[in-house]
Every structure is written in C-alpha cells, then in structure tokens.
From TrEMBL:
This is Phage tail protein. It comes from the Bacteria. InterPro entries: TTP_Phage_16.
Length: 174
C-alpha cells in the first residue's frame, strides 16, 4: 500500500457563505441562484459560523451476545448561533448593513456554503456546495466584551435548520 500524505487546504479564507431567499430545487442549485444571493462571508465573525449537527448512538443489545453493539439514531443538522457585523445607525439599504436588514426574525431561505476555494473566487458551474434551509430567530445586539479593545458591533442570532440539508451539490450552469 502506498501512503498518501494530502497537503490539506488552508481553512482561513477558503469558504464562502451566501444567503438566498428561494431555490427552485435545493438538490439542484443553478449558478444564477447562487450569484444572485447575498454573500455574507465578510459579515460573519471568524469562528462564529458553525454548521454541524449531532447523531445520537444507542445500545443494540442481543439476547445471545456477551457484547453490546451500537446503533445510530436520527441525524440532526444544526447551525450554532451566528454572529455578524452590524451598524445600527446606518441608513436603510446600506450595503455594509445588508445582513442585519435581511436576517429579520422569521425570515426563511438557504445558506449555500462553498468549501475549499478562495472566498473571493467567483462561483462557477460544477463547483460543489452544501445547501442549508434555514429560518432566523430574533436578532440581539451582542454585548461588548469587557477587555476587547478591538471589538466591533455585532448581532447574535439563532438559526433553525428547517429541512433536509443537501451536501456536495454540484452547481448547474442553467
């Protein structure tokens, strides 16, 4: 067997998050849908966008076995509360405040996440994305940390995953 030592992809700056309010088919994303969305990659605070989930394990005990095995439960995708940059005093429709204006409580849509390409690279057909259907909870202004002289104003918001997450979806040209 030949050992393979993959170089890995530097994570910082190598993912893009776009929010779109609607998709014709979340399992078949079209390039125009992605490019028409709101790129929130620079709004989100570093380390504060964490799509993930949980899948519980239970015991599978058998009458004739001296061992206990495991069985997997239901997968539960989730996104931890997000934190993003805001300007509460900005005029309406200010581009630098678009996430704050868009992510109102009860708003639904999709986070489209592209992993492994530079954040500034244009989306293109055949690139692979994950599609997360979401609903936003209440917006809360994040308290400023006591000793953080470099802090900027942010909002913290719960995000509910409202449907099936589609992983590794190739973007269709049309």
């Amino acid at each position: 067997m030949v050992a393979v030592f993959p170089p890995g992809i530097k994570a910082e700056g190598a993912s893009t998050v776009v929010f779109v309010p609607t998709l014709a088919d979340p399992a078949d994303v079209v390039l125009a849908e992605v490019t028409g969305g709101l790129d929130v990659s620079y709004f989100l605070k570093g380390g504060q966008f964490q799509p993930g989930g949980d899948q519980p394990k239970g015991d599978d005990r058998r009458y004739g076995s001296k061992e206990t095995f495991e069985v997997l439960g239901r997968d539960k995708p989730s996104i931890a509360d997000i934190q993003y940059v805001i300007d509460p005093q900005a005029a309406a429709a200010t581009p630098e405040n678009e996430a704050y204006e868009t992510f109102k409580a009860g708003v639904t849509g999709f986070f489209i996440i592209r992993w492994g390409l530079d954040v500034d690279a244009a989306f293109a057909a055949a690139q692979v994305v994950d599609v997360w259907p979401v609903m936003f909870g209440a917006q809360r202004k994040t308290p400023i940390a006591e000793n953080d002289e470099f802090a900027v104003l942010t909002a913290t918001q719960s995000v509910a995953v409202t449907g099936r997450v589609e992983y590794d979806v190739p973007i269709a040209a049309a």
